[in-house]
Design brief:
The protein is α/β, with parallel strands linked by helices. It contains eleven helices and 17 strands. Strand 10 and strand 11 form a beta hairpin. Helix 3 packs parallel to helix 7 and helix 4 crosses helix 5. The longest helix is centred in the middle third of the chain and has 16 residues. The two termini are 19 Å apart.
């Protein structure tokens, strides 16, 4: 039975907390800039001593600025800092400047200690992932039964196979998807599959190329734009299957962000980077589990907005679980290089991954 590990709050009676000074606050000199010596947040819970009290930044993300306002700590992107905001200064992490970064904060299972030297410590094609699947399946069941927020980040390869599309649609229909983040390509090729039976001109069942198939995704984009929206296209063309169709019919929100190389794009694609980022973060703020598949850039972008913890409405603090699935070891482990140290990589084909997850869930 899956169990959320208990959050271990710092013991604020310890000498280092009692003797710590209050943080220094300084006004932002202009919009979109912090004062010199500002503190930048990490993925971990961080406490700030103000007026003798230790305040947790309840809603955090890495590489942002803590601002004290109305008795609370708010974590803001530089572009959202306003002139005069009271910004926390200091770059130490163990109470020296009234700042404490609480990295080791969740109970861990008691296990034997590995020696200093050990084989196969990285996540690679040689890693056995059976236990990861077992844990993930139990986690997904727990999240669905306990009102968790499961956020999926999908690359276009997730739509290239008919069975994979069916599996993800089944996840949506059975309550295992709270929101979907993707780019123009995922939606385009998934809807191309429902419209013409291909993805980038290749049959999604046989993987055979269609004559003139390189036009298919462009024809799909053109037809969707003719309707003016994805839901109107799905209804008008009687699309019966696929990832986006399942989201539309089950009222699961999907966020599509544009890139510099997009063709089209589809009507629902965010064309302004920061509008898209704000929309992503609106879902990250609720996420309790994040699963990225076959998209390095979108998953890293989401990872950079995702802390290791979530403060629930009842004040309970729990971990956020983060998985990155890709055929490339480099991609699966890339999040760790970008600061998302708690992310777990699974090196496998995303079509096989979705099939195994659905099978484990009994779908």
């Amino acid at each position: 039975m899956f169990k959320i590990p208990k959050y271990i709050e710092p013991d604020f009676k310890e000498e280092k907390f009692v003797n710590a000074p209050d943080v220094v606050l300084a006004p932002a000199p202009v919009d979109k800039a912090a004062p010199a010596g500002f503190h930048a947040t990490s993925i971990y819970p961080e406490y700030f001593k103000i007026g003798g009290r230790w305040l947790l930044a309840e809603d955090s993300r890495m590489d942002c600025v803590p601002v004290y306002e109305a008795g609370k700590i708010f974590v803001r992107e530089f572009r959202n800092v306003k002139k005069g905001d009271r910004v926390v200064l200091g770059r130490s992490e163990n109470c020296e400047e009234g700042i404490y970064v609480h990295a080791d904060c969740f109970e861990k299972e008691a296990r034997g200690q590995a020696g200093t030297f050990a084989f196969r410590q990285n996540r690679s094609r040689e890693t056995g992932f059976s236990y990861d699947y077992k844990q993930l399946i139990e986690l997904l069941k727990y999240e669905r039964e306990n009102n968790g927020y499961i956020l999926w980040v999908l690359g276009p390869a997730c739509s290239f196979d008919a069975q994979a599309r069916e599996c993800f649609a089944s996840l949506v229909e059975n309550g295992y998807v709270s929101a979907l983040l993707a780019g123009n390509a995922l939606a385009t090729h998934d809807l191309e599959g429902g419209y013409l039976g291909t993805a980038l001109g290749m049959d999604i069942r046989t993987q055979e190329s269609y004559p003139n198939g390189h036009y298919n995704h462009l024809d799909a984009i053109n037809r969707i734009n003719t309707y003016g929206s994805i839901p109107a296209f799905i209804e008008g063309e009687n699309i019966k299957d696929g990832i986006i169709r399942a989201c539309v019919e089950n009222n699961v929100p999907f966020v599509l962000n544009g890139s510099i190389r997009d063709d089209g794009p589809l009507p629902e694609v965010y064309e302004h980077t920061y509008d898209g980022q704000d929309t992503i973060r609106s879902h990250v703020r609720k996420a309790t589990t994040v699963i990225g598949m076959a998209t390095v850039l979108h998953t890293i972008a989401t990872g950079n907005m995702t802390p290791t913890y979530r403060v629930l409405s009842d004040g309970t603090i729990r971990p956020i679980y983060f998985y990155m699935v890709d055929t490339s070891e480099f991609a699966a482990n890339k999040l760790g290089d970008r600061g998302s140290l708690s992310a777990k990589g699974i090196v496998t084909n995303v079509q096989d991954f979705m099939t195994n997850v659905c099978k484990g869930l009994g779908l």
